[in-house]
Amino acid sequence: MALRRVPVIPGRTAAGRARPGTAARRIPAGLLAPAGVTAALALLPVGYLAVRSAEAGADAVARTLLRSRTLELAARSLGLAAVVTVLCVAVGVTLAWLVVRSDLPGRRFFGVLAALPLAVPSYVAAYTWVAATGVEGFGGSVLVLTLCSYPYVYLPVAAALRRMDPAMEEVALSLGRGRRGVVLRQLRPSAAAGGLLVAMYVLAEFGAVAIMRFDVFTTQIYTSYRSGFSRTPAAVLGLLLVAITLVIVVAESRTRGRAGYATRGAPARRPPAVRLGVAARAGALAWSAALAGLAVGFPLAGIGYWLADGSSAGADAARLAEAVAATLGVAAAGAVLTTALAVPVGIIAARYRGRTATLLEQSTYVGHSLPGIVMALSLVFFAVRYLPAVYQRWPLLVIAYAVLFMPAAVGAVRASVLQSPPVLEEVARSLGRGPLRAVGEVTLPLALPGVLAGAALVFLTAMKELPATLLLRPTGMDTLATRLWTETGSGAYGAAAPYAALLMLLAAVPGFVLGRRSLEEVP
Amino acid sequence: MSLRRLVAVALIPVALLASACGGDGESFDDDSLVVYSGRNENLVGPLLDRMKAATGLDVQVRYGDSAELAAQILEEGEETRADVFFSQDAGALGALSRHRMLAPIPQEALARVPAEYRGSDGTWVGVSGRSRVIVYDPRTVAAPPKSVFELTDPKWKGKVGWAPTNASFQSFVTAMRVISGEDRARQWLEEMKANGAQTFSSNVNILNAVDEGKLQLGLINHYYWYEKVAERGRNGVPSRLAYLPAGDPGALVNVAGVGMLKASKHPEAARKAVDFLLGTEAQKYFAETTKEYPLISGVPAASGLPPFDSLKGPDVDLARLDSIEQTVALLQDVGLV
């Protein structure tokens, strides 16, 4: 939508290049310095793990790594991440295509619903599924994690589909090729970026898989803390998880590099909606409705059951209000800080090539698959030593959210900067603006809606965060998620229901905004 | 957005930090007694609210998971904000004790609790007891087993739930190692695994699975069942508890306990907090509200529970380093954790 404000320049010279605007230029210091701060912050947990592992000595490290259970669980985690990622890509791409490009009845409705599963905490969904249907193990974990995380793929893919130029497809058709190849090829970067977030999210997941009784790598990390109270094996396992993540991150960036970017302005016209046959329409409608029902309706029904069934039902209104205020406050501050930190890295990732740019971007991802407990303990470690004034105060919790949710924000900034034509920046440069000023005056305003969408995603995710919030919150402060933890921890599901319902309701607001955004310009 | 605004946005984190560091001066409230509680707020919150009067200080409680709070205290080291650590199990207290984070508990407080329910070095003391039990589904099980060793019988194949990562379960395995020997404990674990024991992440999940008819038997702590009955009503909880005879490792009594941090700036108030938890008021609270066993003499258990003496578990220091590490190593060897 923002791109409409820009006069479309006919015969854009940049359009012919594979990655326009990413010449191997020097990154200005004004971008490099803040990006360096972001990267350093994101790498803090890795530093902490290195310190704790180094204390152990090589023997202990080797013992932990070579345990057959360690390898078995690493394989299970990777298998789970692979299956969930593939399913999320399949579901996300199909739904995005149906909503943006087909004549699916009620597609605007389904488009808005498509982002709402983000508002469902995975542990709530998992509990509901286990209690109501008895699914568990690998299958149950795949089911719940796919239903909770396919929006990570849907949102970027829907955005990419929206700005795709129909001319490309027409060229393919005129050459006797099908439409599908061109479309899928252009979707690859956005699907891969969403898939990367899904994969890291699954690797870090603990609550839902524990409820599903499926032991994974994070189970081993939690077990190390819980039995034996030894921080060393946990640290070694954490570093192994970082190494695995690094491999996935590099693989994703290769996908991106080969695919090339379709960075041009808004398409001159919209492609006509693809007309589905009667049977296909009915099938697509049933599938979309079932998806929404399972991902959103089912957990909601579960909470309704808690409310009806538990004697502890009923809530202290003052306490509820306090938790709502605290949740909104820290999550909003987290979204602002995360986005501010992500802007320089996202701009560099979109506009510059070379090792520095790659390293800066990837450093914000490597710690992302670490479970919350590791993140939290690393911040305890650093804050107690170097920033005691913020320890157990809300600023540290806000910093923790920034470390935890940086990749989503960096991805949003990068994608939206990529969408704004670099030629405009070049024009600004030719008029005497410095590189930083050109970005600030031309590109950022164009990218702002996308950047704000990233902030909404962080806001929503931070609201649901539990393990780091438990350890880092100010003493006595409760968020909706920590209250939910307290109530369910003592089996008081009736009392937990209002907190769960409010959490989903509040998280649904940014979810709704994101869903609406995926529909812009959809007729 | 102009350059100036871009820089302003980039400076927000710096500004946030600066505002957090300055201004408020002292980073935490020096006039409060800080309790790190690994026990659930719903269970002990009302009791800890009354602690203020006993200690003469404002009491702030930080709730969390016992093991995670212990890890947090270990990371905090000398800078810990905790004055008192109230733990769900002995293991977390033992970990702090081994890292020399805990101060000695005064002798007169220790003496109120039987020796098997306190740390051998006198740095922590149990305040309430919970018995290991077998929870069973009376709809499908007519006669629950009389010993945990019967659970390896083929008739229970795939029907028993356990939680190998749970601290209370691991204490129970330690007790089995002490009572029946290393070899017997390993054999039991292996036979259980071969008999298709179902692994769960917590006692609560085992209890729920029995109530839902997915399991016939489960190894849990007794009070989880009473909590659930309080929430759902007796008719809403189909399962029943079987207490095992004294001497069986499955009859082990675990404790929730308390320790005082060496680095505490309020040692006097911390001592009063421990005294309060071992006082009649608190012990009655544990008996009546959380349905646990009081550990001081003169306060009876809630009616309906088997008398404490009939459950007498093995005499074993459950928080001892070598014991816990060996138990975890055994569980790892068998491939359970």
Automatic annotation (TrEMBL), chain A:
Biological process according to GO: transmembrane transport
A GO cellular component entry from the record: plasma membrane
Main localization of the protein described in the UniProt heading: membrane
Entry superkingdom: Bacteria
Stretches assigned to the ABC transmembrane type-1 domain: 74-252, 324-514
Matching Gene3D superfamilies: MetI-like (1.10.3720.10)
Transmembrane segments: 29-51, 78-100, 112-132, 138-161, 190-212, 232-251, 284-308, 328-350, 370-388, 394-417, 438-463, 492-514
UniProt membrane topology term: Multi-pass membrane protein
Record keywords, A-Z: Cell inner membrane, Cell membrane, Membrane, Transmembrane, Transmembrane helix, Transport
Subcellular location: Cell inner membrane; Cell membrane
InterPro entries on file: MetI-like (IPR000515), MetI-like_sf (IPR035906)
Family from the record: Belongs to the binding-protein-dependent transport system permease family.
Name of the molecule in the record: ABC transporter permease
From TrEMBL, chain B:
GO molecular function: metal ion binding
Biological process per Gene Ontology, one example term: iron ion transport
Keyword Transmembrane helix annotated: no
Leader peptide range in chain numbering: 1-20
Alphabetically ordered keywords of this record: Ion transport, Iron, Iron transport, Metal-binding, Signal, Transport
Annotated Gene Ontology cellular component terms: outer membrane-bounded periplasmic space
UniProt entry tagged with the keyword Translocase: no
Database matches in InterPro entries: Ferric-bd
A matching Pfam family: SBP_bac_6
CDD domains: PBP2_Fbp
Binding site for Fe cation: 223-224
Family: Belongs to the bacterial solute-binding protein 1 family.
Name by which UniProt lists this protein: Iron ABC transporter substrate-binding protein
